[in-house]
């Protein structure tokens, strides 16, 4: 089956984004079993990396149980038709990591930056192209930038050579109309494919994905059993079933997807992925999931509700790397409250 036989191209992210949900504890055997089944179901792309991308395994982001290059090699070795991809965040992963992954037989590289920092992806996108990889720009936290800025940033990635640019709803914070206006604007301005990666913190991953497809996004992420950060991603086996009902061709075998979700992926999880209070508040506040723990600690220290801190962080558009602001903001909220109480 060629790409032309698919109306949308699905990238399965359970073996990358899903790694967040299991604290990066994938074994080689699990990766082999999941990849084999996805390959048999004819999923075009399967992403395999640490949850935070190549070289993410660290005390800061969480140590992987198994070296990701070993997982990538194993996944490549069992694919007859699917292609393996990797995610790379410049600053965490390096060109050396990209070269190593390409040597192992990876066929797609997705270069991820914060939505306003596309300029840091230039070298990595250029190298991915030189390596002959399908090259994707991945604009994380896309809800944080106005449409105009998002378009400018996506154009930068296009100018560096990206084949596709993704709107990434990292915080699961977008509403369908916001997805629509972003995809619409990109479609009008860019000459390359547009993709969408959703998270389900507000229970909108599927609705947002459908909104993206309606506006012309053709590269779509899904995750079996919605395995991913926060409340997880758009659930692939459901997405494929919905696409079938809509007569939108994915090229993926619906029953095989249903079976592998039930028999191979579900047993990997200690508990089903769900929208709990933590993931809901991340979507509601529109902040990075890594802020949750910091906000909880600061809340305890200053006698606050961590939700108030997270909402304030969202309003102030605090981004990953600015975690030190969390304590300052908590202190500010606490001081304002004690002034009000004593007045
Ligand atoms: C920290 C990398 C992140 O998990 C990439 C991604 O999938 C997202 O931003 O949603
Ligand atoms: Mn994600």
TrEMBL record:
Organism, scientific name: Paenibacillus alginolyticus
Q: Which HAMAP family match?
A: HOA
This one is known as 4-hydroxy-2-oxovalerate aldolase
Q: What is its EC number?
A: 4.1.3.39
GO molecular function: any one?
A: 4-hydroxy-2-oxovalerate aldolase activity
Checking NCBIfam families in the record gives: 4OH_2_O_val_ald (TIGR03217), PRK08195.1 (NF006049)
Q: Which UniProt keywords apply?
A: Aromatic hydrocarbons catabolism, Lyase, Manganese, Metal-binding
Instruction: Provide the taxonomic classification.
Output: Bacteria, Bacillati, Bacillota, Bacilli, Bacillales
Site feature location: Transition state stabilizer: 16
Name the residues annotated as catalytic in the UniProt entry: 20
UniProt family annotation = Belongs to the 4-hydroxy-2-oxovalerate aldolase family.
Record flagged with keyword Flavoprotein: no
Q: Which reaction does it catalyse?
A: (S)-4-hydroxy-2-oxohexanoate = propanal + pyruvate; (S)-4-hydroxy-2-oxopentanoate = acetaldehyde + pyruvate
Q: Where does the record place the Pyruvate carboxyltransferase domain?
A: 8-258
């Amino acid at each position: 089956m060629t790409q032309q036989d698919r109306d949308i191209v699905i990238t399965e992210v359970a073996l990358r984004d899903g790694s967040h949900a299991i604290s990066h504890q994938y074994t080689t055997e699990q990766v082999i079993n999941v990849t084999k089944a996805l390959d048999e179901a004819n999923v075009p792309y399967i992403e395999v990396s640490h949850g935070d991308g190549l070289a993410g395994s660290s005390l800061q982001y969480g140590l992987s149980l198994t070296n990701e290059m070993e997982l990538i090699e194993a996944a490549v070795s069992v694919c007859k038709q699917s292609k393996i991809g990797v995610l790379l965040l410049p600053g965490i992963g390096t060109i050396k990591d990209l070269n190593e992954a390409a040597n192992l037989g990876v066929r797609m590289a997705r270069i991820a930056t914060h939505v306003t920092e596309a300029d840091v992806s230039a070298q990595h996108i250029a190298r991915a192209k030189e390596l002959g990889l399908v090259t994707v720009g991945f604009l994380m936290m896309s809800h944080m930038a106005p449409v105009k800025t998002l378009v400018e940033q996506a154009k930068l990635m296009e100018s560096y050579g990206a084949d596709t640019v993704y709107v990434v709803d990292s915080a699961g914070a977008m509403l369908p109309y916001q997805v629509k206006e972003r995809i619409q604007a990109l479609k009008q301005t860019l000459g390359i494919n547009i993709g969408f990666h959703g998270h389900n913190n507000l229970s909108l991953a599927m609705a947002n994905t459908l909104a993206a497809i309606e506006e012309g996004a053709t590269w779509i992420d899904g995750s079996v059993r919605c395995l991913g950060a926060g409340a997880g991603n758009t659930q692939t086996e459901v997405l494929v079933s919905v696409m079938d009902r809509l007569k939108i061709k994915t090229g993926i075998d619906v029953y095989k997807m249903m079976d592998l979700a039930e028999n191979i992926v579900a047993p990997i999880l200690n508990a089903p992925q769900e929208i709990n209070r933590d993931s809901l508040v991340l979507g509601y506040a529109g902040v990075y999931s890594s802020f949750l723990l910091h906000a909880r600690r600061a809340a305890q220290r200053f006698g606050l509700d961590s939700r108030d801190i997270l909402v304030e962080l969202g309003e102030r558009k605090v981004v990953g790397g600015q975690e030190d602001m969390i304590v300052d903001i908590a202190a500010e909220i606490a001081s304002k409250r004690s002034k009000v109480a004593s007045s």
